[in-house]
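Risk register update: the risk of archive-format incompatibility is retired. Evidence:
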Amino acid sequence: MVFSSLIFLYAFLPLCIIATRLVRTVKAQNLILLAFSLLFYAWGEPVWVFLMIGTALGAWLISLFIDRCRSKAAARNWLILAVVFCLSSLVVFKYSGFIFATINDLIGTSLPEHTFSLPIGISFYTFQILTYVIDLYRGETKVQKKFYNFLLYASLFPQLIAGPIVRYSDIDEQISERRVSFEETAQGIGRFLAGLAKKVLIANHAAEIVTLTLDSTRFASLDGLEAWIGILAYSIQIYFDFSGYSDMAIGLGHMFGFRLKENFKHPYVARSVTDFWRRWHISLSTFFRDYVYIPLGGNRLGLKRQILNMFIVWSLTGLWHGAAWNFVLWGIYFFVLLAMEKLFLLRWLEKLPAIFGHVYTWMSFILGWVFFKMESMSDIGTLLQRMFQVRSDFVTNRGVVLLQNHIVFIVIAFVFAMPLLPWLRSKKPVQRLMKDLKSKEPLFGISSSIAYLAILFFCTMSLVASGFNPFLYFRF
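Archived output:
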């Protein structure tokens, strides 16, 4: 089930809200949320819900042994078992075919290249479960002795499929005790609808442009202008698709009393690649920093070791996104840029006018999306050739027509990717206007409700017309 579906909007979510409001105790609310979360996950392929429950159960049982250990060495052994146990299913279902294919290519063997259908959200919930057992071993969180509460943490439907990756220590008190006010529910509805609009009204339209260009049967014959329009559209699609999902997840969390951390902070205004990755998919960057980079030595060791640690982190980051060489190349591409910035480039950028940093960063992530989007080395080479090879047919009538049809949308979409609302809220006239509106409580409430209903109406009409529209990050 996806957030941007009619069954979720008009059946699942209302029923879940009503059911949790009809009971008074947090325990009853947790059990209801757990039941709805398992139903949410099992909606498409019910069999994979047992894999998730099994992974959570195994990790939870091991966590009980870690908590009882009197020596650090014994606890470390249980931790290793937990990590191997959790990662084993991820390796089998996501990476086994890639591993065997790579071995066959390297040494000429004929190992069977079994490919499994990828359990949805497995990368997210596996990492989330790992944060719990690792933090417990480190003494940074308390053991959860009730399995249904731990399973709720692992399967909570607002962030189950595509994050943000939530550390148990950030949410354990909210699982045990929380209250949901009317104001928080209203705030959650607003945030959810903002994310829904991002996904349905912007990301889905950008996906149509991507289909016309990068996913079309005539991809190999695109002119240069069409190639640039296609990759710009993909830059729009992936940002509004993923940040829209994160907004919906955070909004849903508010509706049920959970405060999930921000996962995006307007990454397209970054002035360096380092800054970009502090703003994009923050929970994943934080995971690799806290659980891979720092344990490897982080910035405490010499510069050569820091660069090596960065290479390991970004190779793993690429592989986390997918078992394919284009994702490995994507990770190494960003490693090279980040290493250059660490060595010298960041100091250069700080001395230049801000516009140079913005242009450099824009070009960097746009090129990065080429590696991320195109699944084969030949397609990556073809797209880069179309984008940068100066030829007489770089601009054709097809490209001009495509630009005329979509230039307004592309410009508006990139404008909406900017931090307009925070900028407006910082202006005193806007602050005074909002204060005056809020003082007129009935009018403000009615106008907000009308705005919410309008967004829901337009999104519903778009969903009815377009049909199924999965999120891009579901496949990770």
